[in-house]
Amino acid sequence: MSFQAIDPSQYELLLAEKSQRITELFADTTSLSPEVFRSPTSHYRMRAEFRIWHQDDDLFYAMFDPAEPKEPVRIDDFPVASEQICSAMPKLLDGLRDAPALRNRLFQVEFLSTLSGELLVTLIYHRKLGPEWQQAATELCEQLDIEIIGRSRGQKVVLQRDYVQEALPVGEQVFHYRQYEGGFSQPNATVNSAMIQWAMARASQAPERDLLELYCGNGNFTIPLAGCCRRVLATEISKTSVKAARENFELNNVHNAEIARMSSEDFTAALQGEREFRRLEGIDLASYDLGTVLVDPPRAGLDEATCELISGFDNIIYISCNPHTLHRDLQQLCKSHALTHFALFDQFPYTEHMECGVFLQRANFATE
Fold it and tell me: Which residues form the signal peptide (predicted)?
């Protein structure tokens, strides 16, 4: 059975419907129609994960329909995934079938790919992995020219490295990112590139001042935006993402950015002088002239204190993976700011998911 969830001939219609829904949702907030950034119609997803279903002497990739969560749907073709993933899927499955040390009690496979052509595969087991598994996995790595990691409860076996390196084109520039297995990275690289370029255009409106970024991840926005302003101060709570961000600063020769491993709530308290934190040692908050803030929060949106904090900035770049919480937060932010740019980024074609971007300027600075 092939995966039938996409129909490229329907893409334009589905995208137009998304744009219409977004326009209607924000009609009480802005008269602007969203600038729409489309996705490729296939091979756009850089990450994918599947259950491995064992049936007699065979095994296959499987997903589960939420309507029938106990019935596996066999996946022989997955055209939403990158070309690297699609090419590797049948070859990997053949290699697993032929190697008892690799297939025994294997229950999940995760793929992480890049536009630059790298591919990392994580094999997840319900058993401890020993030397026999490592030898068989090493041979499969060499055969398929990919990276493989083995995982089981409390165990992670890295054969060579546990990351891929992306070279992401954004306009006329190329940015380099180390993306770790298990860490967050943007799933749709083409749309991510457009999203970064859109944010760079907004950040460039205050090049002589500093920028604060909350929820910075692996430096996806931090690195390009460092070239659009004097300095960047970023925060992120995930250890893996902070490690990746610092390495990515070095990869891109970014020397005007600092990162603190803190939640947005804690950083808000620090910036407002309510508490002191050891994680800010060596960072002179008073030396920053923060004029622009970029936030890319989780689906829950901004907490009340962070929303109040960013309302004190002249310029706000807000990237949202949940238009409903963005709409909620704008009810507060639009009391002091004018919404001057509005965008829809189609990160997840053929789904209900909608990624948005808005740019707000303090009302007395706002321009069309």
Answer: none
